[in-house]
Amino acid sequence: MCKVKVNPTDWGLAPPLPHHRSGITTLSHPISQGQTDASPNPPPPSSDPNEPIPMSKQTYRVCFCFRRRFKLAISEAPPEIKALFDQYSENGIMTVDNLHRFLTEVQKEEKATKEEAQATIDHCLRELKHLNIFHRKVLNLEAFFKYLFGDINPPISSSIGVHHDMSAPLSHYFIYTGHNSYLTGNQLSSDCSDVPIIQALHRGVRVIELDIWPNSTKDDVDVLHGGTLTTPVELIKCLKSIKEHAFVASEYPVVITLEDHLTPDLQAKVAQLVTQTFGDVLFSPGSECLKEFPSPESLKKRIIISTKPPQEYLEAKAVKSENDPKSGKTQVDEEAWGQEVPDLKGANMVYDKDELEEEDGNGEEDNDKSSQHVAPEYKRLIAIHAGKPKGGLLECLKVDPDKVRRLSLSEQQLEKASGTYGKEIVRFTQRNILRVYPKGTRVDSSNYNPMIGWSHGAQMVAFNMQGYGRSLWVMQGMFRANGGCGYVKKPDFLLKTGPHNEVLDPKDKLPVKTTLKVKVYMGEGWYYDFKHTHFDAYSPPDFYARVGLLELLLIV
Fold first, then answer.
1. Domain boundaries, the chain
2. Which residue stretches does the UniProt record annotate as biased composition, category Basic and acidic residues (predicted)?
């Protein structure tokens, strides 16, 4: 049984915890944008009167004349914890040997050593200075209770580190992926900056998306969300920030996906900027098309560029300019990159070339006329080719044994495609990379359910990292696995083929292999994160805890 303690601030959906250990642990997640997990220890005093400070008593004003005072109840160990302590202690104390046995038998930390058990005891007792000398080298019930519900006992042990096989091709991993990584807020009018990129990299995000456009004078390159009121940021500033912060949280490769809206001369400038900024860190493929993606292990501390050689965009733009020089850029881009699909409700199950993402264009087959417009040094940078062959979605999902590529679908397109072409998507993602991105109507930078993409093998489920909410908590929880390195190995059933070359059908019901049970013992600590009047101006809040379990297809 997995027994989880939930803080009272965790009144939303708890994130999934891939490969998390069983036993008793503290489960917490951010509850607001930019907020960190609550700590079980009181913060130091602050001069800020608005900063929440825990106290033994709390006073509330009533009608400007009266006050109500409430005493905070001191948390004590539930009966189950007391029984567990009695089982693994002797005469009311838990020695190093007792704690080591508890770690291996209950917490399932098979590799735990007695030295680590002693370090745990020392850590817990440092903050319980009121204990007498006799208790300074062992745990009593109070100290044991503090250990179970403290940061030192997280759901996923940080000591595990990277433990997945990292020598398989990139297509065998789920990759922590951002969408429009440069935006500070909404998709229409927020500022573009390198700050969200830095923040994402520090959280372990491994795929950064940049939309590159000519600047106002057409002589340099900016990053912005085209066709909106977002303020631009210089490309070179973003590149330098990526170089400086790429491997702070993880040494595994960072992929930069470019949505290119440039002329050939500016493409050449981008090639120069990228090459000069990253130098030897930049991964350059030996051939124009890869037959198989390299492994994350072989690409440690490397930067990878992914985009589509933009022959189709240039050709469509040239044709449109000849026919209608006054036409707007939106119509040009739609012809070149493809339209966004409408809402799926009531939509027919029909796929055509306009239903695929704008950056994938209208075909990637060789075209002599358009290829000559592309800067050759720019093409040589591209390690992961994006794009699609001409035809409908089924044609796009065909696996080419001679080359691998990246295909992008919106959340709507994937949801619709999964109903008809589920097995084809799984087969495609065994060798190729599928990127899923939010639908265009999410102008508030909200996110979607990532489980549909993951259950079909999609490696790059792109999220707005500047957002907030349950879907983002799910994403953050997923990529806490494997040491938080940003790469999580896909389960074998998404990678294997049967004796007749059959693959998993995501709609099939699989036999249950593991049952996860969650028991909430208690919740506390809201006063560490909020003013005492944050929820109710006249009395302490009444909380309840709600735990949600998403599909566990991925972690069994």
1. 1-164+514-556, 170-486
2. 316-327
